Amino acid sequence: MNNSESEEETVQLTHGAGGRAMGELIENHVLKTFTNKTAGEIGLDQLDDGATIDLPAEGTLVLTTDSHVVNPLFFPGGDIGKLAVCGTVNDLAVMGADPVALTSSLVMEEGFPISKLNRVLTSMEESSTESGVPIVTGDTKVLEKGDMDGIAINTAGIGLAKEPINDAGMNPGDKIILTGKIGDHGMAIMQYREGLSFRTELKSDIAPLNELLKRARKSGNITAMKDPTRGGVAAALNEMAEKSDLGLTIQEELVPIKEAVSGIAELIGISPYEVANEGKAIITAAKESAREVVEGLKSHPLGRDARIIGEVNQEWTGKVIMETEIGGRRFLEAPLGDPVPRIC
Amino acid sequence: MKFKFKDRDRADKLVQLINRQVPDRRIKIVHVCGTHEVSITENGLRSLLPDRIDIREGPGCPVCVTPTSDLDAALQLAERGAIVAAFGDMMNVPGTAKSLSELKSEGADVRLVYSVSEAVKIAAGTDKQVVFLSVGFETTTPMTAAVLEDHPPENFSILPSNKLIPPAMESLLELPDNDIDGFIAPGHVSTIIGVQPYEKLADKYDIPIVVGGFEPLDILYSLGLILNQLSISDPKAENGYTRAVDHEGNSKSKKLIKDVFKETDTTWRGIGTIPNSGLTLNRDYEKWNARERFEVEPRQAEETSPNCLCPQVITARATPEECKLFKDKCTPESPHGPCMVGEEAMCNIWYRYGGRPKL
Ligand code: SF4
Known about the structure:
The complex is a heterodimer of chains A (344) and B (359). With 344 residues, chain A is an alpha+beta fold. Chain A has 9 helices and 13 strands. Chain A starts with a helix and ends in a 13-residue tail after the last strand. The relative contact order of chain A is 0.16. Chain B has 2 domains: 285 residues, 3-Layer(aba) Sandwich (Rossmann fold), CATH 3.40.50.11740; 44 residues, no CATH class. In chain B, helix 1 runs parallel beside helix 12, helix 8 packs across helix 13 and helix 9 packs parallel to helix 11. In chain B, 52% of the residues are buried. Classes of the chains: A alpha+beta (344), B alpha/beta (359). Chains A and B meet through strand 12 and strand 13 of A and helix 1 and helix 3 of B.
């Protein structure tokens, strides 16, 4: 055990020091793994101080950034690399933008195994290819052992929107659409929480949503979008209601949830509405075009289970009302804290 | 075909039935179980019922009814160097000076456990004294009894704070201003004690008591049975949860309790001392009683902070909304009273569902 550990190639402080070791790490691992590296003349391969981006069209630039930390680093259905790319791509997509380019900043702990780094980089590459968004510039830092836990990844992204969509632009009468089943990511991670002795086949729903949401935008009049990540659907809907000062009513029986998810939820007493999704979006669309938006979503594999789950109104403004399966009514509140351990 | 517990058609029919039978006056129905309150609130049942039906949670949350003096005893033992093991919900209940979790952050060895056997395991792995804060109703007590019958390690003991539901129900009926029209008796407790103990109560106080399950349809059904009894003036104890509860209850569990514990007068937060409403260890098992082993001094304690309506909430005489501190000053993050702490407690449940259980 000890032997193999000492023989295993790991990240060293010199790998972040800017010298030859760092050059080699980037050359042999980052540049070799990534294939999609340019959005203009100067891209990742040039290892210049920055990258250039040729904008593909007219429009509004959208910029976002997110630092990703997750425990465990590798979870059913994905890992921190996939999360880092998809998270930022999705933030752009729900703004109504087509993502154009990403940055990638790796912060690692001294002693982090190179094999794990390679797995993470491969995931980033896969997600970058799947979404068609290049990673055009980056940075690497190494911290002393014990100063952090494994690896953290920051990605920033630039996107281009013809008409940016915010998360509070809806109007009374609009329909609320969910692009798929809720709670998969959060519950998949929950299974790893201390003390849970069971495992299911459940996987994270993590996926890049840019193509799916592009189809949605093309098929109808979308008034607001939001990705229900931390805090889940409950937090996202409440934020939308609060910001727009409108009421949202959803029908419990229309909300799609996998059986495995409701099973775990029941067992551990955490609501599927309160845990993170990494491959879903909440969309509001004008009443007349809601059907078309759902059809547009359904034409993409990631939107197969899309459906209308409720509507926007002016009753109880700033609040979310849930009509329960047996016909009762209650508030759906945002969760008090994040039920997922250490996921940002 | 899978039987659906959340069937809207069946719910509609039950609601119609209830509507037909509900008298033309305010009806107050009390249940005694946090799980009932969660189900009622989560499913929005109150919004389905006529306004005249007022459903309240009584002393159904073990955390809420545990008196400050018992909590103080646990704090005292932890301060004196024992490892104190307690259920999660007990950790944040304010004692006289502080809560268990506050004491823990000051360095005391307080452990969160999910069951009494976990506490025994801790004892097996240490030379230190391990005290389990034994709270709970008839549902959790048999497990504690089983553990003690099984000869736990010598350094293990329990601080008995176990309580019995039927005497608490009776004490509510004894309150002059109770105005209770019927009880939904707790399904879990009743799987152990059966329907029998409620028969005496129903007789003595002429009140409907219906054992209820926890699915929304179960609860509507129990309400229907209560209203039916009222409409034909035939109050009695009735079993509305026959798929889980036997008339006699579970004789094995009842025997376990009897073998290890004996009835004693005990203090309920909000209610006061109720004769024979609690359990302590009987003579054969006295050596596992932390109170005896460590000579814990019984001390009188202030039960709740001045403006907290918990005593009234626990006795179904007030709702959280009537408390001035509710939602503004008192929240699950900074609770002023025990009713905001336990996940089974009415203030906590109402808070989590928007502070307004009826829309
Ligand atoms: S809201 Fe807080 S202060 Fe008021 S009764 Fe409930 S626990 Fe006590």
